[in-house]
């Protein structure tokens, strides 16, 4: 385990996340996305690779291992003994990035004993930063441009989550690019209790953050995701006093989603109060 304290580690995560955001925006504002296709058919851009490199450099001082979507594949035999490590998705929502709709995020999480302990989620095109401590609190910072900044300065400008709900209707948030019949059926079931329900599609880990923020009431994800897709935002959800639970068809919500499994594919899950 690193000798760094939790706040030092969170500062490293914030700095690394913002540095990655700067690299992503350089590509986003250019005409050179350099899009290729990975083995699973998903897109990979120059921004993914630059963001990965920036995050690995930024986290190096922690002395903790890094498991990143864009890093090398690390066998379970090697990582199963990791009690603390970084789980990273340098650019979540690459499809949204290529579409230029702003719905993409940088995600850095500290995993301890299979659970997210700290999480930083940054939407660079929206200039929105979420910082979460499981068992502590989560905050959101608006109008945050890339560039190194102290955690204390950030949190002085931040709002604690969840924010007041206001008078909005019951809001369900779902994937813009990965819907499923099971999700549609679940939402229709909710309409019996909430006939004015609205369904909003949005990309990346912003969906979990919307529930943490109080801008949405529930996020059912009955389709595949990987651990790095959710880890950082999961910490934000926990810091806001909400939950990410495994969902089993026919059985409903189960225990919390866990990390560093032999298979890094997440189970179906639901995010809610």
What does this structure look like?
- This protein is α+β, with helices and mostly antiparallel strands and 273 residues long.
- It folds into two domains: 6-160, Fructose-1,6-Bisphosphatase, subunit A, domain 1 (Fructose-1,6-Bisphosphatase, Chain A, domain 1), CATH 3.30.540.10; 171-272, D-Maltodextrin-Binding Protein, domain 2 (3-Layer(aba) Sandwich), CATH 3.40.190.80.
- The protein contains eight helices and 15 strands.
- It has helices at residues 6-28, 46-59, 76-79, 94-99, 151-156, 181-191, 206-213, 227-239, and strands spanning 36-37, 43-44, 66-68, 84-92, 105-112, 115-123, 128-133, 138-141, 159-160, 171-175, 198-202, 219-221, 243-248, 252-256, 269-272.
- The strands form four sheets. A seven-stranded mixed β-sheet has the order 3-4-5-6-7-8-9, with helices on both faces. The protein has a four-stranded antiparallel β-sheet with strand order 12-15-13-14, with helices on both faces. It has a two-stranded antiparallel ribbon with strand order 1-2.
- Strand 6 and strand 7 form a beta hairpin.
- Helix 1 (6-28) runs antiparallel to helix 2 (46-59) and helix 7 (206-213) runs parallel beside helix 8 (227-239).
- The longest helix is centred in the N-terminal third of the chain and has 23 residues, at 6-28.
- The protein is globular and about 50 Å long.
- The model has no long low-confidence stretch (mean pLDDT 93).
């Amino acid at each position: 385990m690193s000798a760094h304290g939790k706040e030092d580690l969170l500062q490293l995560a914030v700095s690394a996340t913002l540095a990655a955001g700067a690299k992503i925006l350089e590509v986003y504002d250019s005409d050179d996305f350099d899009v290729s296709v990975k083995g699973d058919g998903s897109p990979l851009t120059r921004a993914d690779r630059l963001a990965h490199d920036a995050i690995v450099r930024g986290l190096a001082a922690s002395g903790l291992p890094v498991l990143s979507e864009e890093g090398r594949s690390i066998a379970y035999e090697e990582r199963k003994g990791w009690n603390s490590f970084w789980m990273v998705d340098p650019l979540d929502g690459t499809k949204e990035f290529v579409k230029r709709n702003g719905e993409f995020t940088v995600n850095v999480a500290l995993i301890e004993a299979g659970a997210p302990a700290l999480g930083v989620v940054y939407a660079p095109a929206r200039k929105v930063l979420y910082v979460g401590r499981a068992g502590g609190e989560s905050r959101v910072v608006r109008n945050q441009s890339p560039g190194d900044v102290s955690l204390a300065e950030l949190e002085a400008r931040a709002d604690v989550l969840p924010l007041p709900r206001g008078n909005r209707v019951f809001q369900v948030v779902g994937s813009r690019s990965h819907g499923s019949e099971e999700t549609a059926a679940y939402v229709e079931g909710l309409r019996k209790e909430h006939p004015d329900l609205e369904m909003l599609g949005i990309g990346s880990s912003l969906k979990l953050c919307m529930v943490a923020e109080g801008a949405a009431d529930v996020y059912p994800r009955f389709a595949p995701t990987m651990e790095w897709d959710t880890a950082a935002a999961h910490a934000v959800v926990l810091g806001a006093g909400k939950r990410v639970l495994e969902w089993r068809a026919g059985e409903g919500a189960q225990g919390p989603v866990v990390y560093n499994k032999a298979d890094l594919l997440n189970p179906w899950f639901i995010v809610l109060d």
